[in-house]
Amino acid sequence: MSTNHSAAPCEGGKEHGRLSGNLGVAEIIFMVMAAAAPLTVVSGNVPLAIAQGNGALAWTGFAAASFVLLLFSVGFVTMTPYITQAGAFFTYVREGLGARAGRGSAFLALLTYTAIQLGVYGFFGWAMDDAVRQWGGPALPWWAYALVALTLVGLLGYRHIELSSRVLGIALVLEIGVVLIMNAAIVWHPVPVAAPAGSAPVASGPFAVALLFAITGFLGFEATAIFRDEAREPEKTIPRATYGAVLIIGFFYAFSCWCMIEAWGTESVTAIARTYLDNGGNMVLETAGRYAGGTVREIMQVLLLTSLFACLLSFHNIIARYFLVLGRETILPGFLARTHDHHASPHAASLSQTAMAVVLVGLAAWSGADPLISVFGSMAGISTVGIILLMIMTSLAVVRFFQTRPDLARGQTLKTVWLPVMASVVLVAVLYIILVNFVIITGLSALISTGLAILPFFITLFGFCLKNTATPSAAVASGMVD
């Protein structure tokens, strides 16, 4: 397989131009953390991990998820200097396992992020409608709010990436700030329900479920490599941003989950979390109001909406860049590889992604599905299976890549073989845990959940079996010869 990934320009526009930018470590971490949507995870995943997972020990699921991702990141980062193209997991898998596996992972990545984006549009529409009604406004269908957000996301995604980075950075600082205020208030106040002397936290459910919800909180993690073309000194910036994002996100989630448990007491938090979930309430908003006051609660409700919007913008940027790379590699139509002469953005891919999102939101609205339980729940399930499967393929690709290039692996056996193999084994175990508990994620019937769980495997196989339609010269130039 050729390692030359340059492609000749095509007629009709700047189809195969590279993106440009000057993103540093902090900016890329902002993009990744915005995709992870910290306030959204604290408001959604944390109560679920407590109620359906191991209760007062739910914070251990987020700590374990951080360990798993750090373990995976070692091989991912070690291979990064030898990957000269954006595309994240897709390009890593292709370099290590070949063109067919690369195409399979590319389609899997598109499915993963398209699914979670649609789910978040459902979540945003539901949350916006709930907030407007609480503020005395009219009850409107969720999809109306989703389409407004979609329009704004499309406009920002069309422009240069640094504009999106600023928007995401501001939203991220605000949402993290308000959660830290709540956490500080909890730490400084006594636990309202004191546990009996000598008692220890009791795990009320399986640790596996807490780990499952923790893993979903890291979606968008691969964005560090997706923005390679727009990064300053990518060989240094991408590894630092990867480790930094995992450590910061992991600590923030685990600490916030621990604070939530302390706020209600280890003996009563599980029952309280279940009560809020059963009655459609927001446990985190109520906790903020209880400890930090009504004003902080109101601010947090607004920032939950901006958190969801930032998440949507981040996923839009990720999907658009997958479109661009796949267009550049002739897997998808070549016009998707065009970049804007003025904004240096993947404008063709961005517009196509916006159009696809409009269609999907329209179909979800037409189906009459509940935006939170059915749309968000089921799409989160698909994306969770997808991201774990992508990481497994990437870990295997790292091992194979360095096996075929022993000169690059010399003196790095731990990083290029043992830790990636260990990561693969751990991730397979995590994938098994997710599949066994898949009905809990989706909230749907066993039959429908099974079908959704199979979809990521099916789309990967489809991409693997798909023949390359590029001309021989174009295929060789892009490194996509089978």
UniProtKB/TrEMBL annotation:
Pfam families: AA_permease. This is APC family permease. It is a multi-pass membrane protein. The chain crosses the membrane at residues 28-50, 56-84, 105-128, 140-158, 170-191, 203-221, 242-264, 299-324, 345-366, 372-396, 417-440, 446-466. It comes from the Bacteria. The keyword Transmembrane helix applies. The keyword Aminoacyl-tRNA synthetase does not apply. It is found in: Membrane. Residues 28-455 form the Amino acid permease/ SLC12A domain. Keywords: Membrane, Transmembrane, Transmembrane helix. InterPro entries: AA-permease/SLC12A_dom, APC_superfamily.
